[in-house]
Each structure stands twice: as C-alpha cells, then as structure tokens.
Design goal:
Number of domains: 1
Shape: globular
Radius of gyration: 14 Å
Order of helices and strands: EHHEEEE
Structural class: alpha+beta
Largest sheet: 5 strands, mixed
Helix content: 25-40%
Number of helices: 2
Distance between the termini: 35 Å
Number of strands: 5
Length: 96
Amino acid sequence: MTSIIKRFYTIVGNVTLEHVKQQNKNGAQWALSIDKCAKEEEAGDSKIKKVKIKGAKAHKSHKDPSDQQDVISLQFLDENESRIKSKHVHEDGTSK
C-alpha cells in the first residue's frame, strides 16, 4: 500500500494572487496559471515550500527577449525562503 503525501505551497512577499487578478485583464486566468505552475514545481521538488510572485502585472520578459508572450515571474523558495529556482509563467499555463 502506498501513501499519498499532499503538500501545499505558501505565497510569500507583497504580491498575492488577488493582486494578479486585479492588475491584469484576464487576471483570473493568470492566477490559475500561477497556481498550476506552483503545484507542478512543488510536486517535482520536495524542497519547494514557498512561492514569491515577483510583480502582479504581466509584462514582456527582460531576461528572455525571445519570449513573445507576457510573463509573470515566480521564485520558488525553501522553508527558510532561500531561492531554489525561478520561472516565467504565461497566461496560457505554460512556463519556462
């Protein structure tokens, strides 16, 4: 018999999913995309405990000019809020 372990990430920092919803035309979709990405990353790495949204407003990537879609940047953090990795989330739920 296998056991299922559920983990739930915590959003830290000044930006919340509610801010994302308010700052973007399709804010509810952006919030769903952020949640999808966070759950996928958390499931893939047990060290990820927290997520920091690095700005509520979707924008063109400064670090990846080849990305033509608007992005919202996320940082994935451990329990002590040390950064493990970062990702850009797109409105359609994809990320890189």
